[in-house]
Specification:
- The protein has 3 domains: 134 residues, Trna Endonuclease, Chain: A, domain 1; 104 residues, no CATH class; 71 residues.
- With 346 residues, the chain is an alpha+beta fold.
- The strands form 3 sheets. Strands 1-2-3-4-5-12-13 form a 7-stranded mixed β-sheet, sandwiched between helices. A 6-stranded antiparallel β-sheet has the order 7-6-11-10-8-9. A 5-stranded antiparallel β-sheet has the order 17-16-15-14-18.
- 25% of the residues are buried.
- The longest helix has 16 residues.
- The protein contains 7 helices and 18 strands.
Length: 346
């Protein structure tokens, strides 16, 4: 899912689906013409109950006015319970409004466990490069993924900067810059801007497109890191497998801990043939070739580990469909179609 706000909503829906036994959880539903991020319905005895959830994937604190607006919205929908969840925090005053109108305020935080899954304890000194972006002639920016996973490493190796007859990957350009500074030993972050030849072109892999580029910018600093081995599972994937989602109440205490692995993002997915899917836990993309009875024939179209693109074909039982979300973004589908075409031609 390309939209971070929608992805956050989907995650919250999946967590509540896991925790809400005998309830019907729906994502992005309309009630009386008003859109609600998540609805939960269940029956107890002679009565039906409705819970409404509003999601705020914000970098800043959620303002009081948004809690007040949710109060009115929930009241008009005749909700029995209302919950607002954010990825940041709430402004002062939100708690008072929420308590007056019986709104539960929750905060979602991710908890990684890298020390328990490291393939080795050997420490090495490494140059940590982050916030990588390509600057176009009009100063518009093309950002590389911030997550230090296999996809970032893959793009570093496979995005080519072409000028006349020469071609260099981003990794080669950064290595060449680093080799020109043998005395760089500071642990302080540096903001680097590598100027490129005039009229240089960035070529994205897998028919991802091209655009003119004038510089490569990134932040970097020296740090101690644990040495990884290519024979092990990609460290980013290991981290995702071992992580935990923490649902916190407004005062910071933990209401619920949910392991990443237990969250079924596609809890309401019904697989269809000739359709692309994503496993949002790892950012893997798939293509459903066909379904025969309960057996699903799937192609792993895009999976990055250790800076390489992994492709595979496999089958599984249809009961495991809840790990997959249908891809609806047209740009993503076009990219995946190009990769699948190359796979079928090989």
């Amino acid at each position: 899912m390309s939209n971070s706000g929608k992805k956050f909503e989907r995650l919250i829906a999946a967590i509540h689906n896991l925790e809400s036994q005998d309830a019907i959880v729906k994502w992005d539903e309309k009630i009386n013409g008003r859109q609600f991020d998540i609805t939960i319905r269940f029956n107890k005895g002679l009565y039906d109950y409705l819970t409404l959830i509003e999601c705020k994937d914000y970098k800043k604190r959620v303002p009081v006015k948004e809690v007040e607006a949710f109060v009115t919205k929930s009241r008009n929908a005749k909700a029995n319970k209302s919950i607002m969840v954010t990825s940041s925090k709430f402004q002062r005053g939100c708690k008072k409004v929420a308590e007056e109108h019986n709104i539960e305020l929750l905060i979602l935080k991710e908890e990684g466990i890298p020390n328990q899954i490291s393939p080795t304890d050997n420490l090495i000194t490494a140059l940590n490069v982050y916030d990588i972006k390509l600057i176009k002639p009009d100063e518009k920016e093309y950002y590389l993924p911030k997550d230090p996973g296999g996809k970032l490493e893959y793009l570093m190796k496979n995005i080519e900067i072409v000028h006349e007859s020469s071609s260099h990957s981003l990794e080669q350009l950064i290595n060449r810059w680093q080799n020109s500074l043998p005395n760089y030993i500071s642990g302080e972050p540096l903001d680097i801007d590598i100027k490129l030849h005039e009229d240089s072109t960035a070529v994205l892999p897998n028919n991802g497109g091209t655009f003119k580029v004038k510089s490569l910018r990134f932040m970097c600093k020296l740090m101690k890191a644990k040495e990884s081995k290519e024979g092990t599972l990609d460290i980013y994937i290991q981290k995702q497998m071992a992580g935990i989602y923490n649902l916190l109440v407004a005062d910071g205490s933990v209401k619920r801990k949910v392991p990443f692995q237990k969250v079924k993002w596609g809890f309401d997915t019904i697989l269809k043939e000739r359709t692309f899917y994503e496993d949002p836990r790892y950012g893997f993309y798939y293509y459903c070739e066909r379904i025969k009875g309960n057996k699903v024939y799937m192609v792993l179209v895009e999976s990055y580990q250790h800076g390489k693109l992994f492709l595979a074909k496999f089958t599984f039982d249809k009961k495991h469909s809840d790990n997959y979300l249908e891809v609806k973004d047209k740009k993503t589908i076009k990219r995946l179609e190009a990769i699948l075409k190359k796979l079928n031609e090989s």
